[in-house]
Amino acid sequence: MRIIFAGTPTFAATALDALIRADHEIVLVLTQPDRPAGRGMKTVASTVKLLAQQQDLALLQPLTLKAAEIQAQLLALNADAMVVAAYGLILPEAVLKIPRLGCLNIHASLLPRWRGAAPIQRAILADDHETGITIMQMDAGLDTGAILLKHSLAITPDDTTQSLHDKLGLLGAQSIVEALVLLQQGKLVSTAQDEMLACYAAKIKKTEAEIDWRQSAGQIDRVVRTFNPNPGAYTYFRDVVLKIWQAKVVAGRGIGKPGEIVVVDREGITVACGSGMLLIEIVQKPGGKKLSSADFLVGNSLQPGEYLSAVNHSTSKHD
């Protein structure tokens, strides 16, 4: 099939690579303009752009798809379909109508649950036990189009946003290849979404990564996993930000008030929560490396009875 592909990050690049391997003719790749990123704020090309260049594919990086000249270029390609995956730009209704078979979106949730920008993170935070990939026929709404294909995936107790992203990226790639085969065969069944089951995956805010020790150990564990790899769940200890990259819920290790360090040993740093205990396993101080709790404790003396806090003020003593 003649495919226009629109996508930007690694999740999308995985799908593009699968379409290339499936011998589809990629007549054009659309991706976001290069933008500053990282500590040095150097201009960085998207993963999709790098793959397109490697494969010598035609490439465009428009700021918008509303421009008449861009729409004329797309129309002239006589594409059978457009495949969209984490592109980051709204497709105007005029663009949706350009491909002969319309525009297909690879969405990282089981629609209509978790429409929107952050479906992977929201699924972990909500303690969902499964997620998946939906191939959707795009319409003018936000992830409201008809469902063409769904595949589910279990969320394991140790899944982070990164690990789940990687699994869903592979599943999305497999799913879009399968969907295009069925589309060519006229076997795809279009099913309208049930609006009563819809919920919205709002964009993640950095402030959500701040740990509130009044929450249960299970809730805090999900916060840690949700914000790994970005921006990292964090708390404060002695007025210094402490990022927590890995932790687990434990039992039988003492009692304490929310945020109180109750045990410090080879296993890690055990902290009391609103209910239950959390064992912190991997931490990081500003400007430092990620360290196991055991290695961190070599250069940082933590004592039972001290506190981790959700507020940046002196927290070594609580009433």
How is this structure best described in words?
The protein is an alpha/beta fold and 319 residues long. The chain folds into 2 domains: 2-201, 3-Layer(aba) Sandwich (Rossmann fold); 207-299, Formyl transferase, C-terminal domain (Methionyl-tRNA Fmet Formyltransferase, Chain A, domain 2). Helix content is 25%, strand content 27%. It contains 8 helices and 17 strands. The protein has helices spanning 10-21, 47-54, 68-76, 93-96, 119-125, 161-184, 217-226, 293-299, and strands spanning 2-7, 25-30, 35-37, 42-44, 59-60, 81-85, 103-107, 115-116, 130-137, 147-154, 200-201, 233-237, 240-250, 261-265, 268-272, 277-284, 291-292. Strands 5-2-1-6-7-9-10 form a 7-stranded mixed sheet. Strands 12, 13, 14, 15, 16 and 17 form a 6-stranded antiparallel sheet that branches. A two-stranded antiparallel sheet has the order 3-4. It is elongated. 40% of the residues are buried. Residues 313-319 have low confidence and may be disordered.
Question: Could you list some keywords that capture this structure?
Answer:
27% strand; 17 strands; alpha/beta; 8 helices; disordered C terminus; elongated; Methionyl-tRNA Fmet Formyltransferase, Chain A, domain 2; 319 residues; seven-stranded mixed beta sheet; Rossmann fold
Give me the secondary-structure topology.
Layout: E1 2-7, H1 10-21, E2 25-30, E3 35-37, E4 42-44, H2 47-54, E5 59-60, H3 68-76, E6 81-85, H4 93-96, E7 103-107, E8 115-116, H5 119-125, E9 130-137, E10 147-154, H6 161-184, E11 200-201, H7 217-226, E12 233-237, E13 240-250, E14 261-265, E15 268-272, E16 277-284, E17 291-292, H8 293-299
Parallel strand pairs: 1-2, 1-6, 2-5, 6-7, 8-11
Antiparallel strand pairs: 3-4, 7-9, 9-10, 12-13, 13-16, 14-15, 15-16, 16-17
Helix pairs in contact: 1-2, 1-6, 5-7
